[in-house]
Amino acid sequence: MNDTATIRGVKTLFDQAAHESIRSRVSALRGDEAPRWGRMSAAQMVCHVTDVLHIALGEVPIVRMGSFPLTLLTLYPFRWLFAYRLPWPKGMPTAPEMQRSKPAAWEADVKALLSALDRFAEPGKDSKAAWGTHPLLGPLPGWEWGPLVYKHLDHHLTQFGV
Which architecture characterizes domain 16-159 according to CATH? Predict the structure, then answer.
């Protein structure tokens, strides 16, 4: 697979409609919304998903969380199943690099998220460009990051009712 816009049956942030849908949902977030599950506040979640986008963009180096059986996730069949077919697990442990930012001002944090989202989904972004390394899944090309980040954002936006 090498097409950043479509992976059969899987939504990706490289699809303009999926990108716009996520942008609209982020814009509909309220800072005082209680989570439907988990311990993160809406403000913490906004910072968390922004951190994930920075990692995907290769802007933040990560330390791999590799131990057996987690290293099995670096093998494509397991990675594909985990990242694209299984539901996102609630309460999954998070790498420290994915929680490095602390909430500041709600509007500024949401604006930073939207900016990172737009840079990630830039039209024409080369799927072979340098991308970050996922702490569990290892190095990923853009065409794998697109659906993975979409699924992650969808999970957290659903967590806060948008």
Answer: Up-down Bundle (1.20)
